[in-house]
Fold this protein.
Amino acid sequence: MKIFAFAFAILVAGVAANPEAVAKTNERFVDNIIAGLIEDLINDIQERGLDPIEIKEADYEYRLPVTDLLEVDAAAADILVEGISNIKINRINFSLLTSRLQLDLSLPLVSAKVGSSSARVKLFDGEFAAEASGSVAIEELRLVADVRINLGIISGVSIRSLAINFSIKDIQSDLNIVLFGHDLSEKVNGFLGETVPNTLEANRNDINSLLSHVLKEVIEAQLP
């Protein structure tokens, strides 16, 4: 969400710097500016090695100094996270007449897989262990934004209103989790695959209102 806010802030800041020039351009040109910003974002994510994220092996350990009252050991193998840069532009429309931007973006599939992972915690005389493997996939993460702005040669740019519609089509969870010797796979998969999507849908209006408020503040903080 903040990435979208930052990208849009760059756009409107550019408009504020030269509103007369923007007024002479056509709406397609502005649409192309936004598409270019999103393409730059995609390239930046990939160049930073954030999509895909591949980790063959990773381990971690911690010991309290002097004493052995606390010991922590963790390891994971064959981790793969992909899809966060696959941003699809479903719609971009900027109207100079109404000073309105309509934007529809989506991530078709974001998935995370882990071949194996384990953790052991020794605290005083007790020892706790956990193991996990499997995958989680988020299908059709979508963000639709309707932004109305005020453009002025002297006053610059301000956000008149911003409405966000955030949705997730589905979450597919196929995790194998054993915690303290108890198999919690079914409960965790049910929580991620059913409880989370249902909760998001049930509270959709409140979530969208909150996102709209936060994004509006983030964007306005970037404006001159």
Residues 4 and 106 are 12 Å apart (CA to CA).
